[in-house]
What does this fold into?
Amino acid sequence: MNHFAYHDRDLCCESVPLRALADAVGTPAYVYSRAALLDAFTAYDRAFGDVPHLICYAVKANANLGVLGTLARAGAGADIVSGGELYRALRAGIPPRKIIFSGVGKTRDEMRDALKTEVLMFNVESAGELRALDEVAREMGVRAPVALRVNPDVDPETHPYISTGLRTAKFGVPIADALDVYAEAARLGGIEVVGVQMHIGSQLVKVTPVADGLVRLASLVGRLRERRVRVGMVDVGGGLGIRYRDEAPPTQTEYARTLLPVLRELGVTVLVEPGRSIVGNAGLLLTRVLYRKETVDKKFVIVDAAMNDLIRPALYNAYHAIEPVDRARLAGPRETVDIVGPICESGDFLAKDREMARVEEGDLLAVMSAGAYAFAMASNYNTRPRAAEVLVEGNRYTIVRRRETYEDLVAGETAL
Ligand SMILES: *Cc1c(COP(=O)(O)O)cnc(C)c1O
It folds into this structure.
């Protein structure tokens, strides 16, 4: 079901008209649909059905406590990549035994915190990290549950900045070295091997590369078992893509159906770390048109949201659909425009050469699919306060993060 649709004259999130929301909370604002979040999470949970599994939401996609709390109550675990995300996940009520700690550069302090809270598993990305974790665990008199993040050397066929499963990536242990690193892990007193993990990239629109990677992982698991290394958990990572424009990524059901035969055969608990595919299409960025500007060559629509609110177009040349909130505009003339923000950078655009309904000064626009890697990547560049985040449930809404104030922006600084 689409939770962002026109009802009467306005585009709505669930039953809340975005025009009313903009009047109440101002713009720019991120608007999330609780129902859309839960639909996506439930689709994963059902897709893995009767196989023992845990869906660990990748917190970095959208770390808002309202989002995390909603998913926590639905039974989600968390995939975290920093001590800060551990703090957030715990604050949101995610049980430590449902938290996995990923990331290529964990510090010893972060390791200590995660060991103290007794997280489910550390996804270790190098022999150096393994030795550091062993030392920290032994100092604390505990054993750290570990999966090695194995780099299966498959091409995820996505944007190079979000490809992580090729041999040349900084991520994981090359699959050719994995047996040696596992052998070392098995000898370390502070380490308990519990699983194997991979994560080959993000915004994947085909499941084939994941399936290919999993076959390589499965053969590694077989060889580890021959050496009496117990592997009870296989973590297939996240990365499933969403539709921004005309992509047709597999559904959660198709994704699971492709992977489950191999996973069943291994008889393991399955871990999945989806971020974007849970929250990406559950949010939009609401913005207001400040000005129109026409030159002989171009037409610009200048809006109050900018690259500091949504960096994906500038960073990945990403496409986000942009819809007028006022339904009447859809029946009017069309034109080709650049939609740009107020920031002093030519890279500050939300859309380039976009053919769309003509909009006027004061109109509201919805930048779609802005639930993932939008607020999460927001900055205060140009000393712009970060926008409010709102979570809608039916005809009600909650401000789950208030708009920053100028005071917030200088808190912690010292004037000389
Ligand atoms: C980013 C990341 C994810 C989530 O990726 P999505 O594309 O948002 O699903 C999962 N696991 C790890 C290790 C990651 O770095």
Notes: The domain at 4-32+280-410 is CATH 2.40.37.10 (Lyase, Ornithine Decarboxylase; Chain A, domain 1). The CA atoms of residues 281 and 399 lie 19 Å apart. The longest strand covers residues 283-294. The chain has a mean pLDDT of 96.
